Amino acid sequence: MKKRVFVGGLHHESDTFNPIITKEDDIFVKRGTTLLDSLGDDAASGIIKTLRDKNYDVVPSLVARAVPNGEWDYGCYMKLKKELLDCLKTAGKLDAVCLALHGSMRVKGLGAAEGDLLEDIHRIVPDVPVFASLDMHATVTARMMKYAAAFVGYKCAPHTDTFETGVHAAKMAIDYLENGAKPVMRAVHVPFIVAGEQSETSVEPMKSLTGELRKLEKKDGIMACSYLLGFPWADTEENGVTALVVTDGNRQLADTVSMELAQRFWSIREKFGFYNETHDPETCLEKTKESLNAQVYPVVISDSGDNPTAGSSQDVTNFLSLLLRDPVLCHLDPPLVYQGFYDKPLVEAAKKAGTGNTVTGLLGAKYDTEKSSPIPITAKVKAVVEKWGKANFSDLVLLDIGGIDVVVTSGHVGCYDPEMMRALGMQPETRKVIVVKLGYLEPEIRAIAKRSMMALTTGSSDELFSRLPYKKMKRPVYPLDGDFEPDLYYVE
């Protein structure tokens, strides 16, 4: 008789400094046979394919995801959680549960979602082990550790190994079911917060750190090793880096290796820094004009403080206001392109006005009204694309605002893909300057840039943590509190 494994997941990176509440319209759900039959490059797909290839009976529930944003609406979370748990209750006899989780998902009025979900799963199937993939930016809690058998996190940032991490999680479940593996998981907390822009895995120090994890995973008795870096744009007590190890039945080995990994991470804390060219906003503009004079372009600038793929609101206007005051950069040929702003009312107004006509209104600060102010505009509508599939079926409009081509979206979406520009009739390779609401450049936009730099702008994903109003996070924490003797403790 085939062994039966239940699969599903709730997956979100939640920025507590972003006032937007993630609601049902922001969330995309795959259910049942659709989940099984529409595989992609995500962790859930890696789990499903691996189990199927080994002839397991895969019992699907749902996988719900959204673009990083503010905390989830409580009612929406409870509804989707209930749906997943109802699937579990009616699933029949199960041999394992394998989930695709994030690890830094937050719910308004509840807090950390993963521990809550895992505890409820445990109540229903207390004798069935749970294996799960996690995002590299997971915040590991004692509640998560208590109710799961084994976690494994992504080892690449940008996250190009999501499918492979799902494969790894499924293989741990298979090892348990077929080879009698007895997973023992231990995790050590490191009081350190770090942004993805300081921890990309193609460069040091993360290159060596993740290489060490892979070497350890080849040793007998070690099932998984992960550095989970936490999520710096969430004000939570548990925030920080976690060194996590899963062994086959060996508690002492798990204790020793996880502590050694934690100590290693802390010992090189000063080596983390911005390795890409990074400046304050005003300096970015001056450096950009230097590149233009030297005919080195396209120049790609990241508006890092308002990065929707890190959970920011995508409607902070401060950097655009600065550009509009620059007599050179707002008069380029072809125009500077800025991708992009989340402003559903302005998109609706632009669609109503129509291509080639003029729209008048306010741009930005519709959702986050604290970090910037709306910009009054009278703009030409240059292009309209409705329900673009690569942006979660959001509508896109291209507006000429003061000599700058500004992309505006009807939904909260990632802005990293140059295909968005192409969909609106632009050729990004021919543009001299491109601004994206992003942190480190994703591969798609990196391939276009002849020079790239990150602007240390303000917003809910502010790279300068000292400007963020942390209130709940356990202190001291590096680098906010300087150097101190760390309390490296086991999460339990």
Approximate strand percentage = 15-25%
Q: Tally of extended strands? A: 21
Question: How many helices?
Answer: 13
Helix content range: 25-40%
> Gyration radius, to the nearest Å?
23 Å
* N- and C-termini, Cα separation: 37 Å
Largest sheet: 9 strands, mixed
| Overall geometric form | globular
Quaternary arrangement of the chains shown?
A: single chain
Low-confidence blocks of residues: none
Average pLDDT score: 97
- Determine the structural class based on helices, strands and strand pairing: alpha/beta
Physical arrangement of strands within the biggest beta sheet: 12-20-13-19-14-18-17-16-15
Secondary structure topology:
Elements (H helix, E strand, L loop, with lengths): L3 E8 L15 E5 H6 L5 H11 L3 E10 L7 H16 L6 E5 L5 E2 L3 E2 H12 L5 E5 L7 H5 L3 E4 L8 H18 L3 E8 L15 H12 L4 E7 L12 E8 L2 H17 L10 E2 L1 H13 L5 E5 L14 H7 L12 E6 L1 H10 L4 E6 L11 E14 L5 E8 L2 E6 L9 H5 L9 E4 L6 H4 L4 E5 L33 E2 L2
Helix pairs in contact: 2-6, 3-4
Give a written overview of the molecule.
This protein is an alpha/beta fold. 28% of the residues lie in helices and 25% in strands. It contains 13 helices and 21 strands. A hairpin with a 2-residue loop joins strand 17 and strand 18. Helix 2 runs parallel beside helix 6 and helix 3 runs parallel beside helix 4. The radius of gyration is 23 Å and the shape is globular. It starts with a strand and ends with a strand. The mean pLDDT is 97.
What does this entry show, briefly?
By secondary structure, this protein is of the alpha/beta class. The protein contains 13 helices and 21 strands. Strand 16 (375-388) and strand 17 (394-401) form a beta hairpin.
